[in-house]
Design a protein that fits this description.
The chain has 176 residues and is α/β, with parallel strands linked by helices. Helices cover 43% and strands 15% of the residues. The longest helix is centred in the middle third of the chain and has 20 residues.
């Protein structure tokens, strides 16, 4: 199997990590080597020196992309879950991958639902002005203009949405 990066983008608390966490063991059960790259984990290790300015966010994604491309080139399925709010950086991320090794998944969840789901209370803090430049509140999220897969999460289970992702990966030839 040829490696690839399945890049989940969407608002904070949209379900990116939950989908990737559920999908990883399913792919492993198919005999696929899988690695997870998650924004929360990466920021505690690989990019702990960075803040949340637009420049630092870009540097964070550049570092993650470097790791993802190395893994994908070595026949690993990389499940990357990052807000990655701007089309320009997502286009750049795609360009860094070899042809056919990048799949963009837009986890399309309304901000109202993300606010309801918010496990850390970050939306509440952002709405109260305690967190500045929070994506979806006072910093924009640009819906992807080139998503390979668009997932609607409201009223659907993780299993249903991941079945949709698996079907699309089969259709695109990434898995059998």
């Amino acid at each position: 199997m040829k490696g690839f990066t399945l890049w989940f983008t969407g608002l904070p608390s949209s379900g990116k990590s939950a989908l990737a966490d559920d999908l990883a063991p399913k792919l492993r059960d198919m005999g696929i080597k899988v690695e997870r790259l998650d924004g929360d984990i990466v920021r505690k290790t690989l990019t702990k020196d960075l803040g949340f300015s637009k420049e630092d966010r870009r540097t964070n994604l550049e570092r993650v992309t470097f790791v993802a491309t190395l893994l994908a080139r070595n026949d690993v399925a990389v499940l990357a879950a990052f807000v990655s709010p701007y089309n320009d950086i997502r286009h750049w991320i795609r360009e860094q991958h070899e042809d056919g090794q990048f799949v963009l998944v837009f986890v399309n969840t309304p901000v109202e639902t993300c606010i309801e789901r918010d496990p850390r209370g970050n939306y509440k803090k952002a709405l109260a002005g305690e967190i500045k430049s929070f994506t979806g509140i006072d910093d924009p999220f640009e819906d992807p203009d080139d998503a390979d897969i668009v997932i609607e999460t409201v009223g659907r289970s993780i299993e249903e949405t991941n079945d949709e992702i698996l079907a699309k990966l089969k259709e695109l030839g990434y898995i059998e």
